[in-house]
Give the backbone structure.
Amino acid sequence: MFPGKGGGKSPGVQINSTVYIFCSLVLVSVLLLMLSSSNTIINVKNTGMSIFLGARNGVFEISSFFSRTVLSISELSDLRREHSELLRQLERYDELERSNAEIIQENLRLREQLGFSKTLRYKRIPAQVSGRDPDNLFSALLINKGSTAGVKNNMVVIALQDGTQAIVGKVIQTAMYESLVMPIFDANSQVASRFFVKRFEGIIEGQGASENPLLMRFIPKRARNEINIGDVVVTSGMGGIFPPGINIGRVSAVNVIEYETTMETEIIPMIDFSRLEYVFVIETEEIEVLPNPEKTEEENLIPSLQEFSYD
């Protein structure tokens, strides 16, 4: 029989198996020696500790992040509430400041009115504009003084504005505690007037609205070359209702029609009716005043022109 036949293992195969087993045992031995050394144990321990510490730090950072986030949200909510409260306080301070400024301005206006009242040589009743005629029949102004304060029909109403006194209108209806005043811009209003310097006379009529200029009609045509833009027009005293010498307004335009025998001018009132607040109702009868020795005889004869300022 030939060697190797008959079902037995060949010597070459047995040698290879022995070599493989031997190499495996050597490798296992080396690994066991390495693992059994102190350095290897320390390295494995350090590696485990590093992994554990890393995991713990990660958990700590995550929990810290969420804690900081929650705390930041709470702080943000507190800051919003504080911001809202500060805004409300700022608004209150602004309101107080505005109120204080308004009170100061009101005080200055009242002092101005009081000083003006002391210079008037007429019996005067101070009043405040409280509204307008609800029926708008005369574009009338409503003042807060009536018959109980001595106000009567046809009494003259004047005002001081921006340091200048001027005519407002006349009383047309009185109640116990209120009165209606027809302003000079009313279409039914007529005021005998004259130019303060040139002394030409005319009749001032309203055009129904405070935004429209007044019309001074029936001025002699010979005055056309003597009247200039800006000339002051005052009451003439004719007719017995309006005292002489009270400011009305200034010339804004001169209208001359060749076929007419008279001319007319447009007058801008010295009173801005859109911001009129305080007025004085005056008696047409002057208070008796003793002559001033420091004045000339002529000045004492025309006190109404001396007691008012004209700009």
Q: What stands out?
A: The radius of gyration is 52 Å.
